[in-house]
Amino acid sequence: MELLKKKIIEDGRILEGNILKVDNFLNHQLDIGLLNEIGKEFKKIFSHKKITKILTAEVSGIAIAAIAAQYFDVPVVFAKKTESKNLDQETYEGSVYSYTKGKYYKIRVSKRYISKEDHILIIDDFLANGQAILGLKEVVDASGANLVAAGVVIEKGFQEGGKILREANLEVHALATIDAMVNGKVVFRNHEQY
Amino acid sequence: MELLKKKIIEDGRILEGNILKVDNFLNHQLDIGLLNEIGKEFKKIFSHKKITKILTAEVSGIAIAAIAAQYFDVPVVFAKKTESKNLDQETYEGSVYSYTKGKYYKIRVSKRYISKEDHILIIDDFLANGQAILGLKEVVDASGANLVAAGVVIEKGFQEGGKILREANLEVHALATIDAMVNGKVVFRNHEQY
C-alpha cells in the first residue's frame, strides 16, 4: 500500500535497536484519514471472503479494526489483556508470549461474542514475532468459529511471525512488509503479499 | 440520544452492585453502526467549537474517539496507561485514582502529540467518578492546550463525576444520563444535557 509506505518513510522513526516507531499516526496519535484508507485496502483484499466479525486485541488494534469494520459492515470484538471484574466469567482464552517480559499473558473474549457460526477476520497493527495473532487464533479455535484470515498493517518481514502463522495455514496479508532497517532507513519488500 | 437509550435498554445488562454492562456494543464487542451515530451526535453538539484534536484514554475510549474523529476531521490521541518502552520519554502526565484498586495510576501522552496551539475535545465511554477525565484534563493543562469540552457516551448521574467536572468549569455533554438503576431497570434523566 503505497500511501502507507510513504507515511512510514515520512513520519516513522527508527530508534536504537531497530525499533520502528509509528506512534505519530498508528498507535498513539491516530491519523484517521490514513486509517480509512487502510480499512478500504483490507476490504479490497478480503472482499471475496465471507466475514461476520473482526477480532483484534487491545490496545493498538482497536482503532484500526473499528475504522476497517465500517467497510465490512460487521461488529468488532477486541480481546482483553487485563483481568477485569467487568469481563464475563465465561471466556475463550489465548496465551501470548511476551518477549519483553519473558512470560506468557492471557487474552480473553467473552463467550457471548464469538460463536461457531462466525467467520472471523483478525486485524492488528503489527506482525513481528506473531505471538498476538497466535493468541487470537487460539481464542477463535476455542470458540469453534472459522478463522478466515489475518490482516496486519505492518509486517516485520525479518522476524519469524509471518512464517510461523503461514506455516500454521493461516492466510496473512500485510499492507507493508519491512525486510530490513539499514542505516536508519526502512527497506520494504517489493513483492506485495497479495 | 434516543437510539443509544434504546440500545442500553435492549442490550445493556445490569449486574449485582448496580454495574451496567454495555460490552455487547460499546466496550468489548463494538456496534460500529451505533458508534457512527454517536460520532455524528458529538459532532452536532460540538459543531460550533474549534477543535483540532480529540483526546481519549486507553482502552474503551479509543474506538469511540476514532469513529467520532471522522466527523471532526481531526487526529485522535489516546493517553497510555501502561508503562511502555515504546512511549517517548518526554510526556505529559495525569493521575487517575482507581477506586477498585485503591490507588493512583498514571496516564501519559507524548509531548509530540499535544501542543499549546491545540483545542482539545475529550471523548470517553463512561463518566462515573470522573477520575479518567480529570486525569486527561491534567494532561491537557500540562501541555498548555485549550481544553474545549468533554463528550461522554454514558454518564452515571448518580455518581459524583459530572458534578466535580462541571464545578471545575469543564463543559461536559453526555449522550445518555442514567439517574438510577431500580429493580434491574435503567432510569434515564429526561432532561438532555445539551
Automatic annotation (TrEMBL), chains A, B:
Signal peptide: none annotated. 5-phospho-alpha-D-ribose 1-diphosphate binds at residues 128-132. Pathway: Purine metabolism; XMP biosynthesis via salvage pathway; XMP from xanthine: step 1/1. GO terms for molecular function: xanthine phosphoribosyltransferase activity. GO terms for cellular component: cytoplasm. Keywords: Cytoplasm, Glycosyltransferase, Purine salvage, Transferase. PANTHER family: HYPOXANTHINE/GUANINE PHOSPHORIBOSYLTRANSFERASE (PTHR43864), XANTHINE PHOSPHORIBOSYLTRANSFERASE (PTHR43864:SF1). Pfam families: Pribosyltran. NCBIfam families: PRK09219.1, XPRTase. GO terms for biological process: purine ribonucleoside salvage; xanthine metabolic process; XMP salvage. InterPro entries: PRTase-like, PRTase_dom, Pur/Pyrimidine_PRTase, Xanthine_PRibTrfase. CDD domains: PRTases_typeI (cd06223). Belongs to the purine/pyrimidine phosphoribosyltransferase family. Xpt subfamily. Converts the preformed base xanthine, a product of nucleic acid breakdown, to xanthosine 5'-monophosphate (XMP), so it can be reused for RNA or DNA synthesis. It comes from Clostridium aceticum. Homodimer. Xanthine binds at residues 20, 27, 156. The gene is xpt. This is Xanthine phosphoribosyltransferase. It catalyses: XMP + diphosphate = xanthine + 5-phospho-alpha-D-ribose 1-diphosphate. It is found in: Cytoplasm. Its EC number is 2.4.2.22.
